[in-house]
Amino acid sequence: MHNDIVEPGDYRWLRGRFADATAMDKRVFIAASEWNEKCENQSRTAMKGLLATMGQSFDPGKDVYTRPAPCRQFVQLPIPADVTWPAFSAALDRVRPYALGIIRATALLEQQVIDQGNYAEQLRTRPLGEQTLRFAWVESQRHEGQTAAYSSLERIVYEGILLRALDDRDQGNTAWLSTKVAHEGWPTRSKVGDAASSAAWLLVQHADANPAFQLTALRLMAPLASEDEINPRNFAMLTDRVELKLSGQQRYGTQWICNRGNRVPLPLANTDTVTDALRAKAKLGSLKQNAAQIDTLYGPCPPA
């Protein structure tokens, strides 16, 4: 560790997970896993308490990302049980230079543009880093570009490195925006322009490590939705993001997963017909159109 942080792409702590690990390797792996579990449990408990003060009951399950950045250091990769340490190391050696190159280039970009200019300009540039990393991940999901020739194991390792860096950006943006909003209110179209206001929504949409801030932002946006001060599509998508966490259902059907080879929405609060009517009011296409758009962006679901 360097300054209490495991460097991105350093998976030496994972050595104890493999069959031929030494006793020391296994102790390190167990210690890292136990530390990570404690970190996540403490984070979920704290978030549950914070949401309770906001009048919300919250049961943060494993599928809700409430872990702060330090907990992300020891998140295990979904490596098949039969993979050996030499095979994992070979995959890591191949993909790590490309992944770290993207992360380094992103950091250099951020140094040049982030937090330059007035508030509106800062909002417009803040998403650049996380969007760069997010679309690098999308490229891998679609098996395109440099990742086209990667094996399934190499893709798991590559995406693991990227997702940790992406999470760091999202949480940094959350901390920045929450401070700004606390002092200046929600950035509306009339205050900062449509592009900057939508950029603020994008930052909070990806603030999944802090559901309390997402709920705060949604409450600030709610009275502005009828005044044309925010994009109705943005309000609908954040509504679903928050309500799924707090109730397990979504109103507009904007959040989807792959299930047995099919693209399906996460649980809906209403019938498809009612949901499509709500989507139309929010200037969203139908559920069927939404599924097609997601497939275009991320590629079709893998076979069951």
Number of helical runs?
A: 11
The N- to C-terminal Cα distance equals: 39 Å
Radius of gyration: 20 Å
> How many individual β-strands?
2
Helical content stands at 55-70%
Secondary-structure element series: HHHHHHHHHEEHH
Strand order of the largest sheet: 1-2
Low-confidence stretches: none
Class inferred from helices and paired strands:
mainly alpha
Give the rounded overall mean pLDDT: 93
> How would a textbook summarize the main sheet?
2 strands, antiparallel
Task: Give a verbal description of the structure.
It is a single chain. The protein is an all-alpha fold and 304 residues long. Helices cover 61% and strands 3% of the residues. The protein is built from 11 helices and 2 strands. Strands 1-2 form a two-stranded antiparallel ribbon. Strand 1 and strand 2 form a beta hairpin. The longest helix has 33 residues. The radius of gyration is 20 Å and the shape is globular. The mean pLDDT is 93.
Q: Which features does this protein show?
A:
mainly alpha, single chain, two-stranded antiparallel sheet, 2 strands, 304 residues, globular
Structure summary:
With 304 residues, the chain is mainly α. It has eleven helices and two strands; from the N terminus they run αααααααααββαα.
Fold blueprint:
Elements: H1 23-53, H2 85-113, H3 119-125, H4 127-141, H5 152-184, H6 189-192, H7 194-205, H8 211-225, H9 232-247, E1 256-259, E2 262-265, H10 272-281, H11 287-298
Antiparallel strand pairs: 1-2
Helix pairs in contact: 2-4, 2-5, 3-7, 4-5, 7-9, 8-9
